[in-house]
Structures are given as structure tokens and as C-alpha cells.
Amino acid sequence: MSEKIVGFVMSGGVGSRLWPLSREDNPKQFHDLAGDGSMLAKTLRRLAARPAGATPIYLIASERHSRRVRADLAQVDVAGGGAIFEPVGRNTAAAVAVATLQTLAEHGDAVMLVVPSDHEISTDSQFWRTVEEGVPAALEGRIVVFGIKPTQPETGYGYIEVSEGGPVHDVSRFVEKPDLATAEKYLASGNFYWNTGIFLFRAGAMRDAFMKLQPEIWDAARQAFAAATSDLSGLYMPLDLYEAVPSDSVDYAIMEKAERIAMVPAGFRWNDLGSWQSLLDAGPADRQGNVIVGDVVAIDCENSYFRSDGSLLSAIGLKNVAIVSTPDATFVAPVSHSQNVKKIVEQLEKSGRLETRFTPAPDRVLVSGAWRRRVHHWLFDETLPLWSTKGVDDLHGGFHEALGFDGLPIAKPKRMRTMARQVYAFAVARARGWDGPADRLIAHGLEFMGRNGRTERGGWVRTLNVDGSVADPVEDAYDHSCVLLALAWAHLCGNPDALRLGEEAFAFLDGHLQDGEAGGYLETPTRDKTRRSNPHMHLLEAFLAWHSATGDPAHLKRAERIVELFRKHFFDPESWTLGEFFDESWKPEAGEAGTWTEPGHHFEWASLLVDYAQKSGRPEMTAYARKLYASAIANGLNRATGLAYGAVSRQGIPLDRVSRSWPQTEVIKAALALDRSGGPDLKPEVEARVGRLFRWHIDPAPTGLWIDPIDERGRSLATEVPASIFYHLVSALTQYLDGTEDTGSQRL
Q1: For 575-586, what is each residue's pLDDT tens digit?
Q2: Which of 114, 116, 73 is nearest to 96 (CA)?
Q3: CA dist list (Å): 73 to 229, 296, 328, 673, 691
Q4: Distance CA 138, CA 109 (A)
Q5: Contact predicate 249/92, CB 8 Å
Q6: CA distance linking residue 400 with residue 387, whole number of Å
Q7: What is the reported pTM?
């Protein structure tokens, strides 16, 4: 009777050596590279084709690819297996540990076969004959690997050195991808094999290896697996626990350290299709040795790989080259150098370019709108009801500055910007269809602001006491930008006083804060020495809102002046960063202040510049938005949490390692705006950013509240819930609802 073999297909890789075709959102295993189905689908069919013996089939894949994975799994009889989804990639050691835990839980100490999802193998029958040869060694408790006899000095593969023996060889060592001279020596020696990355072992043997060699990986994976939840689509592990699993490859963690490893020479032809050279070798060639895919015209070309996934690609007189063209990128190199495409990918990632991550193609892997149900419920059923009641000061007027985590108000001075932002938030919610008392709340807020917060010159004060008396009478440009934004939306909602109040606010702005010397607006009428870009960003937001509310081109003209200030002074074209602090002539402040940049403000400016570009007919400003977004993604994120830092230097050195909630909302708005403006498809990025906002800031908080500051290790620093964040959350999440479609099958 044939031994049960539990099969696991590893589908978490990115396949960067096949960029620009293979990308993070649509990696190599989902592509049809040989004309007979995706690499993943063929791998699943291969495991299902075992001639005899029980073979449950499991697939370990990224949760972001769940939709595509389910489609491929539906075509195969997995014999009781299914999908296991990783919330984040933790390399192959973590995946093998989880596979082992799944086998022990469901099948006991069974034999396991672990295979990559993206290799080309000649025939199913030859594959299974080779695997069966390794079963006796696996039953003895040995880890079995499968090697390919080299036919050329290949530098793109890892190697296995063995002691020659019978059908099963003893492994002497594993070696990394060699240089050409070393590969030639390996080929000449006769006792080196290419490492296929296919492993066979008993679950108990791998468990023991982990517990002896990598107990930290095993313990962390065990905790994540124990806390996993499952439904009909598969098994899902919690992000926080799975992120805690140390990231390492199974080769480094186990294979290079374990004892008594055996190797079976493969009796099948194999190609990992890991480079354009390998696709040239494996593909159907014409008489001149060229492999041509897509809309290509090649004249007098030899031994070359040409692929176009978009417009016409033409070439004349080329030999031994690879040219791969996608709608947004083109790769050109001698075929012999095509392995080095990873250097291009690394450079693009360092500079924040998005072409390595997202695929502007019809077959991209994404689930746009996956968070809609959760977002809608949290916003309209949990948060707006709470803040429209507990957040309103019915005794003294206006809104409470903060709530405690018990949902009760905290007695604090009321900032004018917060009062205005609450008005804005309720107006936006009303425009999005909220059936709560928005009109009453808008009027309540504006009445309090007007009755208690006006100055003799027609401006608005900075801060009020709880009872509505003036605490700080300074007329601040930042506060006036928030007042103007609130009034624009109140006017859109039909408030009868908003237009008049807006005209008064503009009169004060022009008469007392406009800087006729250096340009822009003063922080306060007293002309402070330090100037900031941030109030100007919020004024730009207000001006664009008033243009939308009235259609008056004068507001677009105001916005244009802010944009020119950004272009000439705020934006650094060398580092793609946005300065925060300047002197009176708009030169960066001396010292650390002059190098201070905030990723959250990069994201805010990006979405506003896209809005301005569309309203003004100046598409060149979208390029600035992309650069701001790219630099913030490249240098402004905490890699442990994926959240934006408070501040980094122009060189990307963290200056404020705390992550607040508002930058995580602004990156959602920026990605939505850029996605609508052409270029890379950012829908997967939008979903990922919404997920992180909920993971770190919303889900850990009581109903309708949020965690604001989080330290660099992901621990909450919050002691209260600031009302000023409500504006950011309502703005971002309503834009998300407006900018996505209901998938109808979200897993939330």
C-alpha cells in the first residue's frame, strides 16, 4: 500500500528576477509562462496526479492573493487539503513550520512533500517516480532533498554537494549561488547537483529539527497557528502573532544545519523559470533561436527573448538579448546578464518606485473594496453615533476636545481647529448619506464658534476654555484654514450662514495674514520668524474645497499661489521631500528643523496636488504628488509595523519614531488619488493601508474610538482619544467608500 504523502505548495514568493512581468501583487506563479496555465495551477495539478496513494494538497500563500488562490484551488481535487493564508511574508522557514504543524494536527506523523509553486517540470509521472524513491529515507526520519544533475555552469541556482552512493545520496553540504568560475568547478567535479527546493520528510522529523535548531521560529509559528481561524476559503493566521515569527529561509534555518540529509537525483527535467535566460531556454523558439511573446516584430535577431504585454515592440539586428515590455516599464539586457534584474528591483525599491509592487494590467491580482463592509459599519454604526452624542458639549456649546477610553468627555481647552474639524466631519458624513442629525450639529458648531470665538478684526481665536471663554486670542493661520474648510462643506450642505462666514474669513485672511513680501501667509498677524509649510497645505485644502462648493475661479487662483510656493520653496527636487520649517524668506531653518520632514504631510500634499492638477488642468503637478508619495513610502515607514513615522530627515533617518493615526489615513487618501490619475495600479496598496489602520489604530480600541500614538514596537501610547483625528478618519474612509466597489465576498 502506498504511503500517504501530504503535499504543500509554497506560493509566497515575488519572483523579482522576472521583473517587470512578475511583481508583488501578481508574482511569477500566477503567470502563464509556457502557454498551458499558470505555474501555480500546473503545480497543483501535478500533486493531484499521483498514480496511487492518499495525497491531501495544501497551499500556503499570501492572504492578499486569496481570491486568485481560491480560483486555482477550485480546479483541483485537493483530497481534504486546502489553503493556508499568511497575513505577511515571513520567508520559507515559517511556511514550512506552519505546514508541519498543519500535518501534525490533521494527519499525525505523516510524510510531507514541500514544493515551490513556480517551477517547470517535464512530466507528472517522472516527478512522482522520483518522489517515491525518497519515501523510504523519509520514513527513516531523514529529510530528503531532490537534485538536478547540472548540464551547464549555472550561477542562478543553489547547489548540493553529495557523496556518491546508491539511488539515495548523503548530502555533504549546501552551497549558495556561485560565481561563474565556481560553477564551472562544480560542474567538472561531478558530485554537485542543482537544488530544486523540493523536500520530503516526516512531520515529526521536521518538528524535531525546528525544536533543536530554530526553537524561536517553531514557538512563534506554533502560537500563530494555534490562534488561526478558518472558514470555507481557508485558514487565516493573526497578523500580530505571525509577524512575530523570525524571518529566515528553510535552507539557512534548517537544511544547512540538520544532520543525515539525503538527496535523490531527479529523474525529471526541471527549470525554475527564474530568469529571462531560463525562459529563452525553455520556450518555443523560431528558426533564429528567438522566443517571441506578444505583439513583437523582430528582424535579423538571434537567440533573444522578446516579450510585449502591451504596445508593439520592434527590434532589428539584436543578438543574445532580453527585452521585456509591460504597459509601465521596459527591461533590456544581454540574456547572460538577465539574472541581475534583481539589482534594478532593489534600486527601484530604495527610491520608492511603485513599479515593482503593482501591475497595471487586466490580470492583476487584487481585491478592491475588501474593507468596505467593515469601514462602513465602523464609521456609520459605531463612530458617528458616538461622536454625535458623547462628543458634543450640550452644556457649554461646541464639541469636546477629547474622550476617554470609557467614551466620556475629558475637560480640556477647545481648540478652534478641532471645533471646525468636527463641523467638517459631520458635513462630509451627511454628504455621504449619514442619516444622523448632521444639520443640527453643523449649526451647533458654527454657532459656538461664532458666538465665542470671533475677534474684533473679524478673525477666529486659537483656543477657548471648556465654558466657551477665550483662552488664547491669537489669530492663527492653521486655525483659519480649518474654519474655511468647515464652512465650505457647511455651505455644500445648505447651512444658511456658511457663505457669509466664509466671506468674512477670506476678508480677514487677505487683510491680516497675507504676506505681500515673501509670499504665502503669515502664521499670525505678528509675523513670526519661523514659517511653516503645514498651514499652507491646509489653506490649499480649504481653497480647493471652496472651489468645489462654489465654482468660483478666484479660489483656484488662491490655490495656485500655494502650489507655486510649494514648487519653489517647500519641495526639494533632489530628495523628493517636503520641508516643514523655514525662515522669513522661505529658506530651510538651520539645524535639525531644516531637515525635518513628515511622511503624513507628504501624503496629504500628494492627494491635494492631484486634486489641484485635475481642477486646474495642470497634470504636471501629479508628478510631484507621485514623488512625495514615493519618498514617504521608501523612507518614512516603520518596517516593523508598516506605519508612517512621525518624522524623518531628508535622508530617511527617523527623527520621531512615534506613529500617529492621522498619517495612516492620509496615505489612504494619497493612494486613492494617485490610483485615479494613471500610472501603477494602487488598489492593492489602498486595501493594505486600510488594513493597517484598522489593525493598529482602530481594532484595539473600544467601539467608536481609536488608538492615536503608537511606539516603534507597535505598543499603544494613548491616554485619551483626540477629537481632532475624527476629521482625518471621516475624510479618508468616506473617500475609500466612494473610490471602491463592493466585492460582495469580503472576508473581514
Answers
A1: 999 999 999 899
A2: 114
A3: 19, 33, 30, 34, 25
A4: 11
A5: yes
A6: 9
A7: 0.61
